Amino acid sequence: MNVEVQILEKQAIDKAWSGISSCENCGIRHLALFADLEHDDFELIHKPVLEINKYTGENLYNEGDDGEFLYTVRSGIVKLTQYLPDGGQRIVRLLRTGDVAGLEVLVNPQYEHFATVIRDAQLCQIPRDVVERLNKETPRLHSQLLTRWHNAVKRADEWLTELSTGSSKSRVARLVIGLSDKSDHSCHLFSREDLGAILGVTTETTSRIIAEFKRDGALKDQGKNHFWADIQLLENIANQN
Amino acid sequence: MNVEVQILEKQAIDKAWSGISSCENCGIRHLALFADLEHDDFELIHKPVLEINKYTGENLYNEGDDGEFLYTVRSGIVKLTQYLPDGGQRIVRLLRTGDVAGLEVLVNPQYEHFATVIRDAQLCQIPRDVVERLNKETPRLHSQLLTRWHNAVKRADEWLTELSTGSSKSRVARLVIGLSDKSDHSCHLFSREDLGAILGVTTETTSRIIAEFKRDGALKDQGKNHFWADIQLLENIANQN
DNA sequence: CGAGGGATTGACAGTAATCAAGGGATGTGG
DNA sequence: CCACATCCCTTGATTACTGTCAATCCCTCG
Distance in angstroms, CA of A203 to C1' of D26? Predict the structure, then answer.
């Protein structure tokens, strides 16, 4: 952990101990796990909720680790990866603002994925105890928890039907669409390796297809894996072969 | 719906109205959604929970339908299917004894899949109201609900890493292992079309690979899609190419 | 400027999809 | 009881796609 993170965490610790209000007044609370909590509920938080920063490539936790914390994503993107016995790997989900990493520890003591930041992220690190206690003592957390689980399943299903069905080209097109901001056609991609692990294809295939999209004008390179995307054209590609 | 089903449903209706005890004394309750409920909780069930029989090929509900019921699978197998805009289809999950179809209606009013029986099934049809009411009034349902959601996500992730990663041959091998009873090496498969839709490959490819397994002795045909499986050999196949 | 890591491209082999035809079981009607 | 139709499974031939191995390019960083 670098010095900058330590300092940020120090500030966060101060904030947490100086008053639980950090959660109650959270700027993204309407998106977060604690959205429905009321004033008194926050009294139940007796362990610090840290606000931490993690940078691309850093790891949150590993599969099999004892699940001490849940992480709410405030900004950035986290990937969840699983490995096969033969070494094959697959990214099974991406987490973005409002999503929670490590929900499974409320049911099972160990993490079920490798969680890695793939776009600089700001996270809330919530001790498992806190969520368990709130879950026992206030009904206002239940519906948020059910909603998170529901979203995870829904996303997993879409991942399967949209990103793991059809030709490589269709799948890359669907992924690019999913990573695009439809309002301004901007699109920030990940490394070809990660894109491949999301789609279950090799990095070479991914690279070839994205290069082809660039040649066809479906993507316009703006440097740093940042592109302008022709959504309509990509949708046509996604729905044909 | 045929006459036999009507008669069975009639019996089930009689049972349900004759006393809510049908759920309280359910033979598979330890596996079911209501596992943790206590005597008084059953008083909250004011609508009939029907026990229905459905046969292979019959449909439980369609994507987009208004979700009036949840279904607990007592026996048999139900597939959940999703379609792509271009007509492609994909089976995203199989439900077996103890699983619940249609959980999503507790969060969202409409079903999110097509649910179809692929092995003759006995189901409990539970009105959504009943579960919602229980969920509001007794905390003992929460942990079961969270567990169901957790299982659904876990299964979805395994589906992706094990059944949608690697060569067709590996994937078919993994699927066959997953459908095998390890204690007696028996294995009951589905139609080649369904197997293909589970794996995201064509029926021809699936058929070729299963035929090859038969020639190699990994599977021994016992008629009616029933096989003896050499698990060890299949695992070797799954973990190489 | 050189080193290193990711992205791209090429050539080729291997795999899976497609199109098409046969085989085998089941069920129905003559 | 047999002939035939139907449905699904199997197989073949061919094409198209994707993985593999290897080389090169490009950008960033030291």
Answer: 17
